[in-house]
Amino acid sequence: MRYLDWRGWLRTLARLWRSSLQLRTVAITVILSSLTVAIIGGYMAFVVGNNLFDSRRQSVLESSSRATLAAQGRFDAVEDATTVDLDSVTALALAAANQAASSPPTIAILRTPGQGGANTPVDRTSGDYADRITPELRAQVAASNDRRNYSQSVSLTREDGTVVPGLVVGSQLTVPGQVQYELYVVYDLGETEANLAFVQLTLMLGSLALVVLIGAVTFIVVRLVVGPVRMAAETSERLAAGELEVRIPEKGEDVIATLARSFNGMAESLQQQITRLAALSQVQQRFVSDVSHELRTPLTTIRLAGDVLYDQRKTFPPATERTAELLHAQVERFEILLADLLEMSRYDAGAVDMEVEPTSIVRLVEDAIESVATLSESKGSELRLVAPGGYFEAELDSRRIRRILQNLLGNAIDHGEGKPIVVYVDSDTDAVAIAVRDYGVGMTPASVERVFDRFWRADPSRQRVTGGTGLGLAISLEDAALHGGWLEVWSAPGEGSCFRLTLPRRRGDTLTASPLELPPDDQPELS
Predict the structure, then answer these.
(1) pTM of the prediction?
(2) Which of 36, 185, 407, 512 is placed for a possible disulfide with 64 were both Cys, Cβ 3.0 to 4.6 Å?
């Protein structure tokens, strides 16, 4: 569960990152600024630390040199080491070295190992850090032939248990009579470390404050710049949704104001063009509707006169009889064309109503098949119905669905080459589907893309039995869309075509899938 929560959080963050220009700009600026400040701050802390240590080390070496000179002065006052109490002289030298040091460090005067005699020197120390003098440093000091200072970094533990850095400086002392001593000065560098920590903390807090300040300034600047862009995007969306009167406020004379003026000019031009096109479209729709209505009166008269001639055609000479038959057929086709044009004008004007009621899909398909049975027999095409059973009833306008089926069946009969035509019906809990499959000439991919265009035919030179107007599939597509359904086609040259109609079982539902494949698996039905 925690893994899923992390995945959801990451998806949300990624979606926010892709959608917010302001977030990306501020985040990138803060990240780059943080890297820059970290590099500069780290370099400054390194330089300050080295300089502070070098300065303290130089001060320690100078203090150790003064302590060495003071102690050596005490030993130089001894004329004969064999007759002088070296213990007393060593104590005096230790006190002189301690007084000469700039700060009270731990000072130890140790005798060089391997010396004998009556007056063997003793060790003297003024503090608790003599155990920090390592054998390596003592060997280095003992092996030197001059009064050069040798230093070594060590860790010191204070009385409260705190571990601090320290520095041990060693040098040689010589007493008359070639008696050698070693002077070691141990310095506590805890205060230097505390100063360095304070400097580093100050740099870190300053860097953090600088990054936060850069982020805040970037946020304000980006907000000032992105705000008008966001307003332009929102205005574009409103324009796309049909609110043609919206505009971007124009303020100032900068680039953003120029963008607003240009955008508003474009919106004004688009509004004028769309208004002009809408008016032209309304005129065209009104013209088609008016013509369709006006032509019905003379067409009715022509139809009545044609029916009289058609009924008496047997009494006419052969040429006149054929003319009466042609007149009757073309008048019927003209009526169908007018009806289709009137229906398309209703769709274009958005004045289409539906009469929805629960309907049995199988019964509707059976009625449609029965209405074209005579036509299919004349073409030699056998009509087959495949309905496995299930949730067939749906809420739909039966008149419009019957019209779709008659169009699909008529096209299948015209292009089926006398081969069987299979009608599939299936459904699930959410949708119903009808597929009309023929095995005729089929269509090319270019024809499939245009099959639902108005007045388009796959083969205009082909003789048609149903006398179509070229509007049947366009009207069928509008009828399917009116139900919230899909009308899809599959076709291949020489393999036939398949039209699939998918409708939601309940009005207002959204389709997500079809119960039938396109084309369905028809091998069992053809065997």
Answers:
(1) 0.47
(2) 185
CB 251 within 8 A of CB 264: no
User: 């869309």: which residue's tokens?
Assistant: 481
Query: Omega of the bond prior to 519 within 30 degrees of 0, cis?
Result: yes
Half-sphere exposure of 253 (CA within 13 A, CB side): 0
Structurally, the chain folds into a number of domains equal to 3
Q: How many residues does the chain have?
A: 527
Same domain, 98 and 188: yes
Distance from C-alpha of 87 to C-alpha of 93, rounded to nearest angstrom: 10
CA atoms of 467 and 285, how far apart (whole Å):
25
Q: Are residues 439 and 489 in the same domain?
A: yes
Q: Tell me: do 215 and 330 sit in the same domain.
A: no
Domain around 149: 18-243
Indicate if 370 and 465 belong to the same structural domain.
yes
Q: Using CA atoms, how far apart are residues 71 and 89, in angstroms rounded to an integer?
A: 9
Q: Please check whether residue 2 lies inside any domain of the structure.
A: no
Return the closest-CA partner of residue 505 out of 401, 432, 435, 434.
Answer: 432
Tokens of 25: 């700009």
Q: Are 421 and 410 in contact (CB under 8 A)?
A: no
How far, in Å, CA of 96 to CA of 73, rounded? 9
Per-residue pLDDT of the chain (527 residues; tens, 9 = 90+): 444 467 777 787 777 777 777 778 888 888 888 898 889 888 888 888 888 888 888 887 777 777 777 777 777 776 655 555 556 666 776 677 666 666 666 777 777 776 654 444 445 555 566 677 778 888 888 777 766 788 888 887 777 777 888 888 888 877 766 667 777 788 778 888 888 888 888 888 888 898 889 888 888 888 777 777 778 878 888 887 877 788 878 777 777 778 788 888 888 888 888 888 777 767 766 776 676 667 777 777 887 887 777 788 888 888 888 888 888 777 777 777 767 666 766 666 666 677 788 888 888 888 888 888 888 888 888 888 888 876 667 888 888 888 888 888 888 888 888 888 898 988 888 888 888 888 888 888 888 888 887 776 655 544 444 545 667 788 788 888 888 888 888 888 888 888 998 888 888 788 888 888 888 876 444 44
Residues 429 and 329 in one domain: no
Q: Which DSSP string do the residues of 295-364 spell out, in sequence order?
A: HHHHHHHHHHHHHHHHHTGGGS-HHHHHHHHHHHHHHHHHHHHHHHHHHHHHHHHT------EEEEHHHH
Euclidean distance between CA atoms 486 and 191, whole angstroms: 83
Say whether both 189 and 258 belong to one domain: no
